[in-house]
Amino acid sequence: MRPIKLSVQGFTSFRARQEIDFTELDLFAITGPTGAGKSSLLDAMTYALYGQVARVSKSQTEQLVSQGAHDLKVQLEFEVGQCRYRATRTWHYRKSSPKKEFLLDQQVSSEWVRQDGEVEDLLKMNFETFTRVILLPQGAFDQFLKGKKSDRHKILRELAGLQIFDDMKVVAGQRKASFQGQLETLAGQLAGLELATEAQVQAQSEQLAHVEAQLPQLEQQLQRLNRDLKDAETLSNQIQKLATVQATLAQLHSQREEINALKLRLDQAQVADRLQPAWQAFDQAYERQGEAQHKYQAVQQRQASAQAEFEQQSKAYNQLESDRPRVEADLATLQDRLTKIEQRQEQLTAQQKTFAMTEAKQQKVQADWDMAQVKQRQVQNQVEETQQAIAQLQTQQRAIACDPERLDRLTPVIPLLKPWQSDQDRVIQAEQALQNLRRDQTDCAQQKDRAQTAASAAAQRRVEAEDQQNAAQQQLDHAIQADHASAIQAHLHTGESCPVCGGVVPEVLPSLSAGNTVKALKAALAKVQKDFNVAQKADDAARETLTQFKTQLSSFEEQIKTADQQHQALAEQYRQATAEIATHLRTDTWEKAALEQEHKKLQAAQRQVDDLQDQLNSLNHELEKQQQQASFASETVERSTAELATATAETEAEQAKLTDQQTQLEALLQGQTLKMLQGQLRRQRKAWEERVKTVNAAYQESKAAVDKAETLLEERSQTLTTANEQKITAESTWQTALGQAEFTAEQFQAAQASPKQQQDWQAQLKNYADQLTQNQSEERALQQVIGDRTLDPQTLEQHRQEQSQIQQQLTTAQSQRDQLKQWLDEQRRTQNQAQQLQTDLTAAQHQAEIYKTLAQDLQSNNFQAFLLESWEHELVARATVLLQELSQDRYRLSFTPKGDYQVHDRWNADETRSVRTLSGGETFAASLSMALALSEKLSLGVELGSLFLDEGFGTLDQESLESVYQILESLRQRDRLIGVITHIDALAERLPTRLVIEKRETGSTVKVEA
After folding, report:
1. Smallest Cα–Cα separation from 995: which of 2, 14, 25, 31?
2. Which of 37, 66, 472, 633 could form a disulfide with 13, with the two C-beta atoms 3.0–4.6 Å apart?
3. Alpha-carbon dihedral of residues 392, 393, 394, 396, nearest 10 degrees?
């Protein structure tokens, strides 16, 4: 993956939109002050791709939003292989929940096409792998190289992400505990099951078979007994029913006379019903004649009353017309008087308003005059108080001791004192550090001299031991030859030819040493060889110690040179700061605390003087305003006095006019009020109008009543004549009908019965006839069915007892069968449950053992230790290849017997030394090799188009700086984008390009500098 373009807005310190084009970049530095946002650029890349950053959890995205912003947007264009992609991720604040959006596009030709895939599938790396592969923490690998084995394993676990095995161990432990809990639960459930023995199950099964064999016999017996009992109960019911029917027939025969009388009564009622229309016609005609007679008499009385009332109302009407001229004249006179009073009242009201306005104007002018007097006195008092306050402030100002000139000299000095003090301390510290380095150099030189002496002595001992070894070897060789000659001599005879030299054997042969001498010399040689080995090891150790001291002396020389340069630079900086302060103070001696204390006092005094001067300026300005107000108040008093005199004269004139108007109005009212006179007029007029209305209405109403009564009397007379004629006709028809039915009027009244009563009598007669017929039929049918059969109660009860006994036996057997079946079914279910629990128990035991073994294997001292050891050897092997490339085949890495790292220097006869003795540039090369090796291993073969290094240095000397630059240049040649986060300006200036992060109040900005 190679980034092409990065755009950020509202992300951490980048509040405004910033865009970085990586197209022309290959090796560049990322610089800026602490907190400016150097690491935030890398966080923006991981956020655009994966939606999270290493420093903030995925659920706390709002912490990445710039302060005061509500939106965040990060967009990254990048290449994978030959394809270009664009990842856009936005975040928008909402009260309910933030709105998040992610878009992944691929560039096809010149257009962007939306993709549905995941970034992890595209890059073949998840978030954790990406951050470990692309961002290399150089400082962590420096600690990794020089740390102990346990520390290295700890760092390697963090860098390689092996914490997952701890998580797996925790999960395995949790699952082991879970399965152990299941084991306890299953064991408890299994122990709680009540399982019957096979003998109990067999006994219950046999009992069930026996009960089931009895059931058919009992059911057959019960069916037979049920049929017999049913037949007996049927016969018993028939005999009882026959007796009941015969008793009912006897009762019906005893009611025959009552039924005949009821039939006669019904016949007479039916004859009366046939006479009913003639009777109703006569009765209705009689009632209509009486009603017409009554209404005629009532109308006669009403007509007489209406005539009398009309005569009385005619008299009242005539009197009204006689009084009309007089009453209307009185009302007109009173109305004219009221009109004049109202006119005078309106004139008086207008004059009162005029007087009130004039009087109000006078009062306002009076109030303004009073207010002007008060305001004049208040302003004068304020002027006097302000003048006193000004005098007091001037006195206080003169009492303050203030030296503005001294303050002006101290003001630029105070900010310089703290850096000056810091420079002084740093000079002292640098001088002390230089002295310490020189002392350490002296100690190291002495140790090196002692090591030189020891190395010379060890070399001498090694030479001596080697000489002794050679001499012992020669003695042993001679002894072996002598031993061989002695063995041959034993077989030689005088005068014979010697098999070794070919000469003649003399008579007397020389004496030779025995085999014991060879053994002694071999033992001596072994001792001498052991001494030589000891001397050789001591010589090698002394050489290595001497080499280390030489290396340390060389390192001390570089450190002393650097420290001396730093000391001189700090001393020069301190001298310049001292000279600048002396220029301002015009003296070469001072005390920082005294100057700061004096400056504070002078500042406080100056602030007091300035505050008092501000108050004086404010009071002088206020005094001018008050004096202007006093002048204005005097003018206002004079103007108000003239206005008050004019208003008083106008008020007196209007008062005289008002008095004249009131006198004229009182003459018209004559002791009364306008409302009283108006009420009197309204009452008199209303009384007259009501009298006219009442008399007219009563007259017209009485006349209409007389006309209406006469008309109604004529109508009632005609109705009465018609009713008399209808009564005579109906009475004649009624008498004729009675004669034809041979009924008198009294017999007709006695024979009448209501329709409902007649219906009841008919129903009673029909019911009697139906009962008689039905019971006679049932008697004949029952006599035919029963015949001559009989049944006593004892026989019926015996049938019932036998049926009940068999029914009880059958019910008991069925209940016993059901209980046995239920017990056997429960036992089968319990056995199945026990088998399932046993199966689950076995499976849980197996799982618990698996996770127990897994948890033990995942312990750091087992599986993880093996894995870390293997990883470390693979990393060292790959890092050695990379280090040889970076160091021009000079260095390679290996392990010491104790497991620490050492380097082999090919330029110094493949000499080995600890990685702790490497210089700054050499350490950078070694740690970078380890970082690159881990990056390649974690990437799993994925092509890495970019790397970002956190160099982790505080300072670099010139030689180390050159080494680091050359190493970075070698990485640049691998067609990768290399970004270096650094605080070292000298390193940043050596790189081809810089991304400079500037920290501002409105947010950080990014600019590219070549």
Report:
1. 31
2. 37
3. 90
d(CA 468, CA 834): 87
- The pair phi, psi for residue 403, each rounded to 5°, is -125, 90
The CATH number assigned to the domain holding 580 equals 1.10.287
Confidence tier at 11 by pLDDT (50, 70, 90): very high
Interatomic CA distance for residues 490 and 899, integer angstroms: 60
Q: What's the start-to-end Cα distance of the chain, in Å?
A: 24
pTM for the whole structure? 0.37
Is residue 739 assigned to a domain? Answer: no
Strand pairing class (977-981; 71-80)? unpaired
Asked if residue 546 lies in contact with residue 444, where contact means CB atoms within 8 angstroms, the answer is no
Distance CA 953, CA 242 (A): 130
Q: Three-class SS of residue 496?
A: coil
Bridge partner residues of 14 (DSSP): 11
Q: Is pLDDT larger for residue 861 or for residue 293?
A: 293
**What is the b/e burial string over 53-71, where b = at least 16 CB atoms within 10 angstroms of the residue's CB?**
beeeeeeebeebbbeebee
Q: 461: Cβ–Cβ under 8 A, 6 or more apart, which residues? A: 535, 538, 539
Distance of CA 82 to the CA centre of its chain: 43
Residue 451 lies in a domain: yes
Amino acid at 32: G
The pair phi, psi for residue 180, each rounded to 5°, is -65, -40
Residue at 396 is within a domain:
no
CATH number at residue 978: 3.40.50.300
Q: Is 996 left (phi over 0), alpha (psi -120 to 50) or beta?
A: beta
pLDDT tens digits, 952-991: 555 566 766 777 777 777 776 666 788 888 888 887 888 8
Strands 993-998 and 27-31, how do they pair?
parallel
Per the rule left: phi > 0, alpha: psi between -120 and 50, beta: everything else, 909 is: left
Helix (H, G, I), strand (E, B) or coil at 392: helix
- DSSP states of 64-123 as a string? GBPTT-SEEEEEEEEEETTEEEEEEEEEE--SSS-EEEEEEEEEETTEEEE--S-HHHHH
Query: Which residue, of 585, 616, 632, is where some domain finishes?
Result: 585
Q: Does 461 map to a domain?
A: yes
Task: Give the Cβ contact number of residue 29 at 10 Å.
Answer: 26
Q: Give phi and psi for 948, each to the nearest 5.
A: -125, 125
Structural domain boundaries, residue 37 = 1-124+953-1010
> What is the number of domains present in the chain?
2
Tokens 């009940």 sit on residue: 804
Which of residues 585, 611, 632 is at a domain's end?
585
* DSSP sequence for 553-610: HHHHHHHHHHHHHHHHHHHHHHHHHHHHHHHHHTSS---HHHHHHHHHHHHHHHHHHH
The pair of three-digit structure tokens given for residue 624, joined into one six-digit string: 């001018």
pLDDT digits (tens, 9 = 90+) for 492-515: 666 665 554 555 666 555 555 545
Number of H helices, E strands in the chain: 20, 15
> What torsion, rounded to 10 degrees, do the Cα atoms 266, 271, 276, 278 define?
-170
Strand partners, 998: 1005
Question: Is residue 138 predicted with pLDDT exceeding 60?
Answer: no
Rounded CA-CA distance 357/235 in Å is: 128
Please report where in the chains the tokens 């000499």 appear, as a residue: 911
Percentages helix, strand, coil for the chain, rounded to the nearest 5? 75, 10, 15
Query: Could you count the other beta carbons within 10 Å of the beta carbon of residue 973?
Result: 9
Q: What is the 3-state secondary structure (H, E, C) of 93-109?
A: CCCCCCEEEEEEEEEEC
Say how far apart CA 112 and CA 673 lie, in whole Å.
Answer: 101
Q: Is the pLDDT of residue 132 over 80?
A: no
